[in-house]
Amino acid sequence: MAQQLHERIQSSSMDMKLDALKDLANSSRDITFAQEFINLDGISLLTQMVESGTERYQKLQKIMKPCFGDLLSFTLTAFVELMDHGIVSWDTFSVAFIKKIASYVCKAAMDTAVLQRSLAILESMVLNSQDLYQKVAQEITIGQLIPHLQGTDQDIQTYTIAVINALFLKAPEEKRQEMAHILAQKQLRSIILSNVIRSNKPINDEMAHQLYVLQVLTFNLLEDRMMTKMDPQDQAQRDIIFELRRIAFDVECDSNNSGSIEKRKSMYTRDYKKLGFINHVNPAVDFTQIPPGMLALDNMLYFARHHQDAYIRIVLENSSREDKHECPFGRSSIELTKMLCEILKVGELPSENCHDFHPMFFTHDRSFEEFFCICIQLLNKTWKEMRATSEDFNKVRATLLIETPHLARRKIMELIKQQRLNRLCEGTCFRKISSRRRQDKFWYCRLSPNHKVLHYGDLEESPQGEVPHDSLQDKLPVADIKAVVTGKDCPHMKEKGALKQNKELLELAFSVLYESDEYLNFIAPDKHEYCVWTDGLNALLGKEMTSEFTRSDMDTLLNMEMKLRLLDLENIQIPEVPPPIPKEPSNYDFVYDCN
């Protein structure tokens, strides 16, 4: 087959070439075929077709535009599939090929499939070769990528953000700050917020992952400040502390001639105590701990300048409280900055499987500082409500994590989602409902481990345990699922006599719509399985899980998280496995009968 397709894609007949490239795009997913085709120098043939052959195709574009788009699309699809096997190094491609791929991305109007494949190729080039990163960076600019985010195709938007992330990740350290400045100038966050996050379409997992990667890479620009200790002898750094004092107490720095040295020292010490620093004599020492280092002082100054009223109120409120109940602003700010660095993974490389992005990140170019400003006010409020003392600081910190929903709920929802998908992978035995037969008939359905296919088939009897995938004769690709409907909207509930048979079935019925008007109909064995399956199917489609079990699990896990965080567990090692259940007592004489 590899030999035949190798010959057919070089045919002078456009129709034969098109059919051959279509077959090649499909066959290239198979690694055995891919190896054979690559051994025939097939990759070089495809790149030559892209470099030189497209000029010939473009002459035909005016008279057969759809054919041109399909030819190029199938060529690039085959190339992407072959390269994904990791057999050929990315370093082998010419500048001419890179320029051609980049030109498809930079064109104002380009076939959607061609644009998608071109973006995927550029991303892989940048991620897999430092040399290719430099060449790609010379061919495309952020300004040329931005328009692709302003369309409505989420796949194109996802690949565009992926290319931006790849360029960001591979850029030398000295260029990352410059690139971040360009992204801010181009209002990238605002464009993503308007066209992606606030669009009517649900955000799928791949898009959520790319948004998370962009968030992590941006926050990682703060690592240098986070790991920089304050130099107590640096006058410019000490001036920041003087500025915090000036804004809080509306005082100017005393001149050298005003009052005695001892009097001025006493005034500074008093004010630094009110500001909540640990070291009242020399607060600069407080910022020698890394992390959070100078990043904490940056946050404090941002809060004091951009939220001045709230800053003054917090400082003055705590100045008037009893010493044991004051919420020390300085210490709180340092600990809070450290906590935010941990939560937002500052300094860590992005995880390949994480989708945990925060929408607020895209609402402000100084999002980390704004996170801090919100949380420091929330911490102060929580401190007052708990009537906390300095010994309760860790409990207040733990409570703050729970009271910030977008930091706790998202992680718990991801945990619930994984549980639902794991249950679908285990599978469930469903009962067939028929008014003509009294004898029960069964069928089994389970999700493949890679979450891409539903395997299902009939059974003679109810199984004991899981049913293997290979014994289930029918398959439904998840990509083909259009929608999930429930209750009276299900086709098998609309059939004559279905509702009369058992109205309770309505609460357990759901159907999967695929293709145009085909359905896979389910009757769950109980309410729990109904919720598990409808939640899991909605999660696969990128939709919200809305069952009552999800709400109950969320409440339970949030409550448990709160109680665990409030426990005094400092310096106590938590075991990885639960302790063994103790043996039963020899007698129950200690039991008291209340009657």
Automatic annotation (TrEMBL):
Residue ranges occupied by any ELMO domain in the UniProt entry: 236-408
CDD domains attached to this UniProt entry: PH_ELMO1_CED-12
Keywords associated with the record: Apoptosis, Phagocytosis, SH3-binding
CC annotations in GO: guanyl-nucleotide exchange factor complex; plasma membrane
GO-annotated molecular function: SH3 domain binding
Gene3D superfamilies, A to Z: 6.10.250.810, Leucine-rich Repeat Variant, Pleckstrin-homology domain (PH domain)/Phosphotyrosine-binding domain (PTB)
GO biological process, one term: apoptotic process
Function: Involved in cytoskeletal rearrangements required for phagocytosis of apoptotic cells and cell motility. Acts in association with DOCK1 and CRK. Was initially proposed to be required in complex with DOCK1 to activate Rac Rho small GTPases. May enhance the guanine nucleotide exchange factor (GEF) activity of DOCK1.
Listed name of the protein: Engulfment and cell motility 1 (ced-12 homolog, C. elegans)
Organism: Cyprinus carpio (Common carp)
The gene coding this protein: LOC109111580
